[in-house]
Amino acid sequence: MSILDKPLTPPPRRSRRRSIIILSILLILLLILFVFTDIHADIAFIVHFVTAPNHFTYHGHSDYVSSVAWSPDGKRIASASGDHTVQVWDAVDGSHVLTYRGHSSDVLSLAWSPDGKYIASGSFDTTVQVWDAVSGKSVYTYHEHSDAVPDVAWSPDGKRIASASNDGSVQVWDAFTGSHIIAYRSPPTTRGKPTPWDAVAWSPDGKRIAIGGNGNVLVLDAATGKNVASYGYNAGTVHAVAWSPDGRYIAVGSAANTVQIWDTVTANNIYNYQGHNEDVFSVAWSPDGKRIVSGSGDGTAQVWDAFTGNHVYIYRGHADYYWGHLTSNAPVYSAAWSPDGKMIVSGSDDSTVQEWKAM
What we know:
This protein is mostly beta strands. Helix content is 9%, strand content 42%.
């Protein structure tokens, strides 16, 4: 008899008893869940988990997303990440456009040039790199910082870049030659180390620069680098600053879990938004100047009236569990409005970038 003629040994039958035990355990767990918890909340959670989210998610990064920004024409989005890359992708369909790999460490910040042709990115590797937003070709690398660069900003005329660094300096330099223009340096602390700067933003007219770090927000004269104003209560580290589109107000996000709104004409604090319960890492004004979106360590991005704080919308796409998103309450490090004010994009510690309607 050949091996082909031998009767095949039937496969072992799966134990019905084992299956019954597993099903019984699952039923018991479900009963416990429904008895000791709110059944309506449980049902709502299940429905939420399996319902398709009302937003687009970009999954191109493999580490936290530190910064996001729309191109000036609103067609593309750039996102910086702890995976050492900046990625540019289509804002409509999410298709990948290019990946910039010029940095040797985490990329902490990015900014588009006003004409949309270039991107500047700051990194833990102490450099700021300027590169072509279409080809990814390097244009210039600025090496004058000696520590990480948490924030960068282009001047409104597109000629200069301001960079804030953990080395205690905010430096302004020519965007294409690196020629140094001005520098503001914080005084050393009692330990001899300078106070780091975490945030920088140009006023819309290009005449002033707001900077934030440990303590108050300072406003510098963009031509001389001299400190001309100070806003705040020394309420911890300032993570983000943003000018209103008309240049009159400054929004300040900080470790105090608040966003402060300051009037630069009267020097008055006109409102404090207290909707978050963790650090506020990002603030951005809507293009019409009426609303603000703030991103926080509590996992939410919140949209609210810039002058009354009236609640508009809480976005929980980075905070909730749902199919395809099994990370909970991941900090939102960056949020930005589309140029037409209809959409918001947010980047998070969950390594995703999410694009959603500005409710």
